[in-house]
Amino acid sequence: MRWWCSASQGVAWTWAWQPFPGVWLVIILIALAYAWYLRGLAAPADPEQRRHRRLQIAQFAAGLFCLWLALDWPLGPLGSGYLASVHMVRYLLISLIAPPLLLLGLPEEAYTGLKNHRRILAFLHNTTQPLIAFFIFNVVISVTHWPSLVDRLMATQVGSFFLDIIWLAAGLIFWWPVVSRVPEWPGFTYVWKLAYLGFNGILIRPVFFILLFSKFPAYATYELAPPIGRTSAWSDQQLAAGVMKLGSAWIMVIAMAFVFAAWVRASEKSARASTAAPS
To answer: How far from chain centre, in Å, is Cα 185?
Structure first.
């Protein structure tokens, strides 16, 4: 039994279910920590606040589900040692889909409470400044998709675990300035949030060119893996390039739509407040 998904060198793929206790433990611990934190908060008295709290719980649960889906069977072992395209699906789930849902699911008290922790706040101030967060995310994603590094990390459970955790951490840093208001970045307005997400959506990383235009499979892990059906390592790599680029682009477009909707709501609220104010 393996505790985390990694490449199964030379072992043919089978649809027989495989347990990964390490994945379950991580997901259960996060869920318990979230439930414990909510239990310590005062129950919302206002019906609107209760609906908002239920929405937050649903968002956090959705983020945790996406994380579990990417880490556990079958996507976990498929993406770790058999198909580069599934590897990219896992990357999207771990770094671009799960993090914003998890952050949106945290109650406001969790963010405002950070102001009492100077060291944590200083760390967040240094890493979640929008330009720095953008730089950290794209450097991490580019480096962790470099073929030689992927082949080394995927070969062991510890290496694969590290890769998944670094993706999640990079995703949380990237989404933090968009979702959280602590620390405050007054200059990071809705316009800049749209630009931040839009530029990341159109950005083409060097690894994309390698995967798309290479005449040979770039990852030895997937080239040497026993084939699944009629899929070749090269055609799967082409698909992986498409998933990496188009998948991230669509996620950014959807996120931009939510940001734009929030901008419209804020503008309407401001206009109503101006109208209601005594002249």
So the answer is: 22
Residue 10, Ramachandran bin (φ over 0: left; ψ between -120 and 50: alpha; else beta) = left
Determine the pLDDT at residue 278. 63
- Flag whether pLDDT at 279 surpasses 60: no
> For residue 74, what is the DSSP state?
T
Q: CA 266 → CA 47, 121, 161, 190, 238, distances in Å?
A: 21, 27, 41, 10, 42
Query: How much is the average pLDDT of 239-261?
Result: 97
Q: State both tokens at 241.
A: 């390039």
List % helix, strand, coil for the chain (3-state, nearest 5). Answer: 75, 0, 25
Q: Residue 45: which residues within 8 A CB-CB, separation 6 or more? A: none
Distance separating alpha carbons of residues 64 and 171, to the nearest angstrom:
14
- Phi first, then psi, for residue 117 (nearest 5°) are -115, 95
Please provide the average confidence, as pLDDT, over all residues in the chain.
94
Coil, strand or helix: which one is 271? helix
Listed in sequence order, the residues at least 6 apart from 21 whose beta carbon sits closer than 8 Å to its beta carbon are: 1, 3
| 259 Cβ contact list (under 8 Å, min separation 6) | 178, 190, 193, 194, 197
Supply the DSSP string of 135-176, one letter for each residue: HHHHHHHHHHT-HHHHHHHHTSHHHHHHHHHHHHHHHHHHHH
Residue showing tokens 């934190």: 37
pTM above 0.90, yes or no: yes
CB burial of residue 166 (10 Å; 0-12, 13-18, 19+) = middle
Count of all residues that appear for the chain in the document: 279
Task: Calculate ∠ Cα 74-78-84, nearest 5°.
Answer: 145
